[in-house]
Amino acid sequence: MIDLKSAVEAVLFAAGEPIPVARLSLVLGAGEEDVLLAARELAESFERDQRGIRVLQLGDKLQMCSAPDYAPIVIKALEQRKPPMLSQPALETLAIVAYFQPVTRAYIDQVRGVDSSYTVGMLTERGLIEACGRLDVPGRPSLFRTTDQFLRTMGIQKLEDLPQLPDMTQSDGVEKLQKKIDDLQNAEDGQLMMEGLEQ
Fold first, then answer.
1. Quick one: pLDDT at residue 196?
2. What distance in Å separates the CA atoms of residue 10 and residue 27, rounded to the nearest whole number?
3. What are the tens digits of pLDDT across the range 61-98?
4. I want to staple 145 with a disulfide (CB 3.0 to 4.6 A). Which of 36, 75, 101, 181 is the partner?
């Protein structure tokens, strides 16, 4: 009989990308709660032993990646440049998609008041958002949502972990929203270095 924790470790290491818990459960012949428990124990042991790898839960998926503390060393060893930071327009667009998804590009344009074609394309290219279907109206515009890469970049497990939007009916709503965007920029500055470091 296989050790569930070791089996989860082996699959996540070999995969190098997020694996649905349901698939691990099916392949390993164990309940989803048992798989999640094994993954949590594995993550705790990695952290407790100060290992160079971590196990992340991204919604209903699991992934193994390098520990954030070692990002500068990994980047240097692999001779990777630090990924470029997101611009203010990109952060605004990303925030709109994150909080109101699924959304069309026209909706993003309406909220921002400018054409967002380039920004949507760039965020899609970076893997932070993705097309997830089409709206059932004339022209059938594409709908966009955030990806697992977005969760990983922002350092959260699920969308519910995003900061709450401020009440825009209050007089200081715009200032609070700007602070939230600035907070996302700061989080992005610290987390984006991890892009491309997954095992």
1. 35
2. 12
3. 999 988 888 888 887 887 756 566 788 889 889 999 99
4. 101
Nearest 5°: phi and psi at 3?
-85, 120
pLDDT tens-digit map of 89-145: 898 899 999 999 999 999 999 988 899 999 999 999 999 999 998 988 888 899 999
Q: Are residues 57 and 93 both part of a single domain?
A: no
Which amino acid is located at 22 in the chain?
A: A
Q: How many CB atoms lie within 10 A of CB 117?
A: 11
Q: What whole-number distance in Å separates Cα of residue 143 and Cα of residue 154?
A: 21
Which domain CATH number covers 46?
A: 1.10.10.10
Residue 17 falls inside a structural domain: yes
pLDDT (0 to 100) of residue 7: 92
- Residues 179 and 109 both lie in one domain: yes
E-assigned strand segments in the chain: 19-20, 53-58, 61-66, 103-104, 129-134, 142-146
Are 99 and 173 in a shared domain? Answer: yes
Query: Same domain for 94 and 157?
Result: yes
Q: Which amino acid is at 189?
A: D
Same-domain pairing of 53 and 100: no
Asked if 146 and 125 count as a contact pair (C-beta separation under 8 A), the reply is no
Q: What's the chain's average pLDDT? A: 82
**Structural domain that includes position 15:** 4-66
